[in-house]
Amino acid sequence: MMYFFGxxxxxxxxxxxFLRDPQLTNADRxxxxxxxxxxxxxxxxxxxxxxxxxDQLNQLSQRLDRDAPSYKCALTYGLKLIPYGSSDYxxxxxxxxxxxxxxxxxxDTAQLSGPAVAIVGTRHPSREGLALAEMxxxxxxxxxxxxxxxxxxxxxxxxxxAALAASGDTVAVMATGFDRIYPCEHRDLADRIARDGxxxxxxxxxxxxERWHFPRRNRTLSGLAMAVVVVEAGRPSGTLxxxxxALDQGREVFVCPWSSFHKAGAGCLHLLRQGARLIxxxxxxxxxxxxxxxxxxxxxxxxxxxxxxxxxHEITGDHSQLLQALGDGxxxxxxxxxxxxxxxxxxxxxxxxxxLAGLVYATTLGYRxxx
Length: 371
Fold this sequence. Notes:
By secondary structure, this protein is α/β, with parallel strands linked by helices. It has 16 helices and 12 strands. It has 3 domains: 3-76; 107-301, Rossmann fold, CATH 3.40.50.450; 308-369, Arc Repressor Mutant, subunit A (Orthogonal Bundle), CATH 1.10.10.10. The chain is 42% helix and 12% strand. The strands form 2 sheets. A 10-stranded mixed sheet has the order 1-2-3-7-6-5-4-8-9-10, sandwiched between helices. A two-stranded antiparallel sheet has the order 11-12. Strand 8, helix 9 (238-248) and strand 9 (252-255) form a beta-alpha-beta unit. The longest helix is centred in the middle third of the chain and has 16 residues, at 127-142. The chain is elongated and about 75 Å long. The protein starts with a strand and ends with a strand. Residues 295-315 have low confidence and may be disordered.
């Protein structure tokens, strides 16, 4: 079951001591937790008797008793901790061999177990890349599919913003402790996600953004999602690490196409050559995940709407205004938002309905009216 920090300083300290114990590997910790052991409940050590010798059990208990007092003031943030093996641990992540032994969380932890897609990309995106991230995120969130990303600058931040604007679920996976938000300019975004989505970290408070944290964070990020959407990525890049992690974990990898002259899209072209699935619209993602949505998750009414027959989409006044704004040209989501003086997330919802009705189609640069 989930553990809540801040209620019992001594119990908090034992959890920290257990997660920091240098003589335990993450595999050891997961094995302990999967057998029902809880550091805050010393009596639970008997559950490990068939796995650990009496000498090993005594040593573990002595180390926790010895080290815990130094951590008594370590956690006062009202954090939740989801141990591996608990009913609250995200099932799709639990299937991964390298799943972390525990997740520190703040926010609506139920969002960790719903259908979700990771949207990732470069920290230095083009205008078109930002528009694509916003479009995919807003449309998926509106369809009841959560958006997972890494709270980074660029594509990640835009994906979180768009999901929140669409009143959808979003999960931000951090590479630091909760007291070290990175990058610092995303503190306000992190606060909003903690309120309306969920912040997640496998790193203890006090952990700075070390280089080796990011590949580890990326594997947890991809493990929380059914698929990874790579919007725009250079080569080499951390985004490619996330895509490779997703492939290792048996996840789908969807990639946007970019010109061979677009250096920031070189990573996307590399993934496509390796067999990743090309996408140009949110419908491509939903259709590619149809089996996963039906097989592993309860499909929400929003997802059913995305998969609905074209004849069920009513053309409203807003739709007509959007079609008039498109004319015979090709406009990005940002351009349409400015022309219609409406939030981009609202325009993205209208676009998804028009696309499903066959009245518009997406390109790498924006949208055009259907023929």
